[in-house]
Amino acid sequence: MPVTDVQTDTENRTLTITADFAAPVERVWQIYADPRQLERIWGPPEYPATFVAHDFTPGGRSSYYMTSPDGERFGGWWQFTTIDPTSSFTFDDGFADADLNPAENMPVSTNRYSFSATAGGTRAVYSTTFATADDLQKVLDMGVIEGSTGAINQIDALISG
């Protein structure tokens, strides 16, 4: 399994997941740049994602929804702040309503995904910071660790296929 470490830090309101992939950085990067590939790994396996927009540029926005096994849709959005090709990108991540508009009263996180070459391929570090410890706790209670770990662990099948 690619995920090698998960750390939560309530004091600093962060969740950090580290994963190692047996593929070059450029291959792992392409997954995040291409919405059709991103759909195959974003969200837990039982909640496949559909990206309806994906402007992977500084200032660009993505909108998506995940579909539950019962057919219920859960929306989300990303607003990109920086893109450093093959190295890192930063973005705000939030929940969305049925029309994919930002959901009121739901946590918004600031994220930095970074990728570096290792002897065996790529190390990815997924860092998420929340505005408050309560926001972090809310997503922890929603199962973000299990969902994120399940999503990231899908990358191996995509890069080997």
UniProtKB/TrEMBL annotation:
Residues 22-159 form the Activator of Hsp90 ATPase homologue 1/2-like C-terminal domain. It comes from the Bacteria. InterPro entries: ASHA1/2-like_C, START-like_dom_sf. Belongs to the AHA1 family. This is SRPBCC domain-containing protein.
